[in-house]
Amino acid sequence: MGVSQKKVAVHDLQVGMFVSDLDRPWHTTPFPIQGFYIRSQEEIRSLTTHCKWVMVDVAEARQTEDYEEASAPAFSRRVSRGKRADVLQLPPLQVKNPVRYEQTTDLKKELKACTGLLSDTEDALQHVIRQVRSNEFPDLRPLSAVTQRMAESITRNPDALLWLARVREHDDYTYQHALNTAIWGLVCGRHLGLQPGLLNQLALGCLLAHIGKVELPVELLEQEHRLDAEGFALYKTYVERGASKLEEAGVSRAVVSIVRGHRERHNGSGFPAGVKGDRIPLLAKIAGLVDCYESLIAPRPGYTPLSPAQAVAHLFEQRNVEFQADLVEQFIQSVGIYPTGTLVELNDGQRGVVVSHSPARRLWPKVMVMTDQQHQPLRSAKIINLATYNEEREPGEMLQVEGCLPFGTDNLNPNQYDVTGAESRWSLRKLVGG
After folding, report:
1. Mind listing the pLDDT tens digit for each residue in 343-371?
2. Which of 47, 90, 191, 373 is the most buried if burial means most Cβ atoms within 10 Å?
3. Reading across the β-sheet that carries 36-37, which strands appear in turn?
4. pLDDT for the residue 2
5. Inter-residue contact 266 to 88 (CB < 8 Å)
């Protein structure tokens, strides 16, 4: 970000400007991230209904023509320079008979309830992959059983399974990607109010989305993000390979449609069929969005991951380009700017890990602080609910998340603390309380 800012009345805003601050708290507005480029006159009109003035980062302004048809950020752009990405506007998403899920267990209880669930899921997924490699019809019953347990856990408490997945040490990118994508999908689906049966199908589809890669050369997959045109053409076949294999095995049409559609994009720029908009099933749209998000933030050889906040900014810029706008915004509301399990540094220098967040306080999560202001480890961790802490404080006294930290920073390890409360170095009462 640039450092040159100026105060601008909302009626003087122009497309291409970067809005870095508002005249009111961000969490009281519908804008899901702190800082965004204005891409259209519609966004200016939206700002006028909430603000009288905003702060604009002069150094970050972009040319108006860049946003006549929104283009992706430089780090992810796949189109050639000068070629604009198509924008597609659709009516808001409609979820049939949405369910209003209430949190029915606290973090301590739910963590105990899902002990071993991730390992069970990985074992079941490995079994399916071994069968596919052996040209056998995969038996999906064990995998379906664990996805049902995952969905039930997420509906009871959306933070517990996400916490376990985010702080889990794992060397195999393929399995970790599948597990995390399924969990992101469940958290988003729960937020949207999907029926339990649809949540189960969504989780299973996310876990199986990349099953077709089993039939591709290992050396091709190792170069997945540096392929030439010929290699990418072969790589894209993994989607149809996987969908066809699952169809032959008698997997439900709903799950197959998720696998077949998870790489399609809202504006038709995806593959394998290049379909767009409402022709992409809702569950496939969700699977594609969470698959992209996990790819952006996951560490792997030869790639420097984005922080969750950077990944959110990317998704926000892709509204109505690669992903439907209101789906992006609902996803961001469901996981937060700083999702559960994210290492962060506060503006006073303390460091810790996000334990949970509130959709109404997207920038003020609950943080388990593990160091003091000089980055020295605390003898016992403490929980700070930033939303509660900042409630009656002046702006200059507020604690904010300064930024995300890569896992392993200064040997910060949330696993050193037992979040179930057993033999813990801190009181779980602080975690589940205000």
Report:
1. 999 999 999 999 998 777 778 899 999 99
2. 47
3. 5-9, 53-57, 18-22, 36-37
4. 38
5. yes
Residue whose pair of structure tokens reads 């060397």 in the numeric block: 171
Q: What is the mean pLDDT of the chain?
A: 85
Q: What is the residue type of 199?
A: L
Cβ-based neighbours of 148, under 8 Å, separated by 6 or more: 200
Which position has the higher pLDDT, 43 or 157? 157
pLDDT in tens, 257-296: 999 999 999 999 999 999 999 999 999 999 999 999 999 9
| Cβ(88)–Cβ(183) below 8 Å | no
Asked if residues 97 and 53 have their Cβ atoms less than 8 Å apart, the reply is no
Check if the beta carbon of residue 283 is closer than 8 Å to that of residue 201.
Answer: yes
* d(C-alpha 289, C-alpha 188), whole Å: 10
What CATH homologous superfamily does 107-335 map to?
A: Hypothetical protein af1432 (1.10.3210.10)
Question: Residue 26: left if φ>0, alpha if ψ -120 to 50, beta else—which one?
Answer: alpha
- The residue extents of the domains of the chain are 5-67, 107-335, 343-432
Any idea which residue has 């664990």 for tokens?
A: 146
Ordered alpha helix ranges (H), 172-267: 173-192, 196-208, 218-222, 229-235, 237-248, 253-261
